[in-house]
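Structure ticket #2291
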Amino acid sequence: MTTDPLSTAAELVAVRFPQATWAMLTGSVLGPLRTAGSDLDIVVLLPDGPGHRECLHHRGWPVELFVHTPDRLAEFLASELARRKPTTHRMLARGVTLLGDPGDLPARCARVLADGPPPLTVAERDRLRYCLTDVLDDYTHVTDPGEREVIAAALWTETARAALSSAGRWVSGGKWLLRELREFDPGLAERWLAARDDPAPLARQVLADAGGELFDGYRA
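Resolution: structure written out below.
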């Protein structure tokens, strides 16, 4: 494996995508969160074509390619805003240009990240309350030990997502769910980690902060 991710990524882009409008290297490989397993996340904009996502190895590096066209990229960014999950926004806001010029797109994505997601609508907040109420009820009454483990995992994850959503924060998955929690409230993040085996008390607290349990009268 070569030690310089930028030169490796630039070489790959030049060979694979000579027609690219621009390309950026992004992800944990560029910062302090880099690990021995970090891959090269490369966003490529092509003038036309179907676009795709592709995984491969290049000079010992694991690589993930996110290949877009202008229309496809615009659709991705709009979809992320609707889902409050700004993966591509974050990639573009924090990436390093390898080829071409993305213009003001990184700055616009950075502003979106800083501004946060749009406020929850009444319907969205009601759905959040209903979903967390439903999983909490399942957890409270489950008797099968195996099912209890499965429901506990679901409740634990939904508790974090609900806490972030109801507070007007971005939501994510995997390691980024914890990162979002830590950025929002480090103390809450620690309580969430500690609640993994029994998430019900924290779920009830988050649910109360969001407006309380909701079952009777819920309609979507």
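Closing remark: The two ends are 52 Å apart (CA to CA).
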